[in-house]
Amino acid sequence: MTNSREVRLTAIPDGLPTPDHFTIAETTLPAPGEGEVLVRNRYFQVFPAVRTLFGGGVEGAPFPGIKAGEPLIGVAIGEVVDGPLQGTLVSHWQGWREYAVVPAEQTTALSDVLPDPILHLSQGLTAYTAFARGAEIRKGDTVFISGGAGGVGSLAAQYAKQLGAGRVVGSTGSAWKAERMRTELGYDDVLPRGEAPDGIDVFLDNVGGEQLTTAVTKANDSARFVLVGALSSQLAPDHAGITAFTEVDLLQLITKRITVRGLSPKDCWPAQAEWEQRFSEWLRAGEVSFPHTKISGIENAPRALHELLTGQHVGSVVVEL
């Protein structure tokens, strides 16, 4: 038997969650059964879309809803300490806890292509798949990224440049984030929320809402839109975050021949090996960086989520155990 701590949701939030909506609970894990492994987690990712799970989740999504009294979930990296592949570093979806008993088939052994295991908790795979296989960036494209300072956006501008984009523009509602986006993250220009550049060839949308509405009006002929998030609803205090309705001018979509594609995690997994190789090459050459904040201790995880949801970080947020 293994003692472990985990973060549990104590009550469904009415609005954005605060640290008071969570508790750090002690639990005892059984020894892994047949086909299971015991993983000692090293890191887990804090991501804003977890808020959607508090409202019951979204039908068809790969992640279940979270009820009051249940532990949170998210991508984690840990070492198998009991069961098949003992000693192997793996990723899995039972984050927000120190130890986890996981079906072996639900773990993925980490390759050594990336120079640091924590890089597997970046959201670079989403950004890469959106550009390399979704929108298929062409040389000289003007790329617009909504929510450009988040986990996806902070890597997306850098990737876009490596894949041949001519100009990359992002949006944020924060002046200090805009400065970092221009000086560190590869953006040529940064616009306030709700605005979009004139002439868009590729749009990577993390936000939805009015930013998607506006981008349609500014799109070039045959523009390619890839939708990966809906933060406009997921971060709205008066919204449960399980739906995200947006007004779009269909005639603009038709006359401009705009392609709109939703991208889910299921679309990204086939590109994993390709992304790892290219990300590693770019990192080693100093052509891209991994913007992130590392927070130590599971007891600080609820605060980390609150800070992320209220816009206090750039890039990914990772809890180190």
From TrEMBL:
Signal peptide: none
Family annotation (Gene3D superfamilies): Medium-chain alcohol dehydrogenases, catalytic domain, NAD(P)-binding Rossmann-like Domain
InterPro entries, per database record: ADH-like_C, ADH_N_2, ER, GroES-like_sf, MDR_fam, NAD(P)-bd_dom_sf
One Pfam family of this chain: ADH_zinc_N
Keyword Oxidoreductase among record annotations: yes
Keyword match Oxidoreductase: yes
Stretches assigned to the Enoyl reductase (ER) domain: 17-319
Coiled-coil parts of chain: none
Keywords: Oxidoreductase
PANTHER family named among the record's database cross-references: PROSTAGLANDIN REDUCTASE, PROSTAGLANDIN REDUCTASE 1
Stated name of the protein: NADP-dependent oxidoreductase
Organism listed in the record: Allokutzneria multivorans
